[in-house]
Amino acid sequence: MNTAVLDSRIFEFDTEEVASSYDRWFYAKVQEAIDDQRPGIPHDQVMAEMDGIIDEIESRQKI
Predict the structure, then answer these.
(1) How far is the CA of 11 from the CAs of 3, 15, 35, 55, in angstroms?
(2) Do 2 and 18 meet the contact criterion of CB atoms below 8 Å apart?
(3) Closest by alpha carbon to 31, among 23, 42, 39?
(4) Rounded CA gap, 17 and 51, in Å?
């Protein structure tokens, strides 16, 4: 087991083992998205929905 601590100014993770574990998880999620057969959502639609969510949150914070 490698217990080397990485420089936190350079690396987000405490150890290489944790970083490698995250990389495996991340790449699996990317592959899962690539393999997904559902139709994509147009960028403009996603942005419009997100703008609505952001506006709703901001309006609640002003109360």
Answers:
(1) 15, 9, 30, 34
(2) no
(3) 23
(4) 38
Ordered DSSP codes for the chain: ---PBPPTTT-SSSBHHHHHHHHHHHHHHHHHHHH--SPP--HHHHHHHHHHHHHHHHHHHT-
Gap between the terminal Cα atoms of the chain: 52
Reported as a single tens digit per residue, the pLDDT across 3-38 is 666 566 666 778 889 889 999 999 999 999 999 999
* Sign of the four-CA dihedral 9, 14, 18, 20: positive
